[in-house]
Amino acid sequence: MSVLVLVALAPSARAESVADIQSELTVLNGQIDQLREELVKAGAAGGLPVAPATALTRLDQLQAELERLTNRYDVLANDIRRIVEDATNRVGDIEFRLTELEGGDTSTLGQPAPLGGGLTATSPPPRRGGGAPVATSPAAPPSDQPQLAMAEQSDFDAAVAAADSGDNAKAAQLFGTFLATYPGGPLAGEAQYRRGEALAATSDWRGAARSYLDAFSGAPEGPFAPRALYRLGVSLGELGQTNEACLTLAEVDSRYPGSEVTSDVAAEERALDCQQ
Asked: Which of 259, 252, 30, 255 has its CA nearest to residue 127?
């Protein structure tokens, strides 16, 4: 049975819907808390407001809307979690197939890391006085943005220079050393892609496919993701994995419609005689 290659993660519109729901929940929580305080103050001053039914009805409506949004958020979060898990498993399938093609020991493969880093754990807003969650200010962005190590840029430039001079074997070796020295650095995604290009230029299509896969799965929304996924499809085609190659190429257009590699993908699909 052929290995399915990839599925798109949750569309950006769905991710935005979750963010929108979280924002609405925060606003509603704040409104409910404020309304509750107003009702308590009015009661302490000598009874309910002149039109208590209006205020209480509004509170009931807000609580009903809060429950609806909470349920909707839970459904969307579960959908995204399932999609992330499915995509991660499919990337793991490709990792297994490439290891087999290279003659490696598949028993040493561990569980693949969640594609794109997985889902960020969230916790409910704190409550006060036993009431609804209190609206909180958004957390400040972290100040420790990724920084280049002292020699990181120069080592990267040396590998690029080797590739530009046509010494692809040396470039592949230098990019491999760079990735081992600076794993997860700001230039890692580009280095993985460029290493794949250098290996492809020496006809090492197995090594190239692995580098393209690592470049894509490490940053599926990064600037090199569409081209890395396209080049992964090309590499699989060169390895004789035509079905997997066609599935990967189709995924490029599905995941990155209108990208800079759209015409390249179409040409490769024609060359491989992919069935649309």
From this structure: 30
How many CB atoms sit inside 10 A of residue 126's CB?
A: 8
Phi then psi for residue 91, to 5 deg, are: -65, -40
Task: Write the DSSP string, 174-214.
Answer: HHHHHHHHSTT-TTHHHHHHHHHHHHHHTT-HHHHHHHHHH
Return d(Cα 164, Cα 170) in angstroms, integer.
Answer: 11
- Which phi and psi (to 5°) does residue 127 adopt? -105, 155
Contact 117, 37 (CB under 8 A): no
| 102-108-111 Cα angle (round to 5) | 105
At residue 18's C-alpha, the angle toward residues 16 and 19, to 5°, is 65
Q: Which CATH superfamily is domain 152-272 in?
A: Tetratricopeptide repeat domain (1.25.40.10)
What pLDDT does residue 142 have? 46
Residue 185: per-residue pLDDT: 86
pTM of the model: 0.51
Q: Which residue has the tokens 């209480």?
A: 56
- Number of continuous H segments (helices) and E segments (strands) in the chain: 9, 0
The predicted pLDDT at position 206 comes to 92
- How many CB atoms are located within 10 Å of the residue 156 CB? 22
What the block records as the tokens of 258 is 């209108």
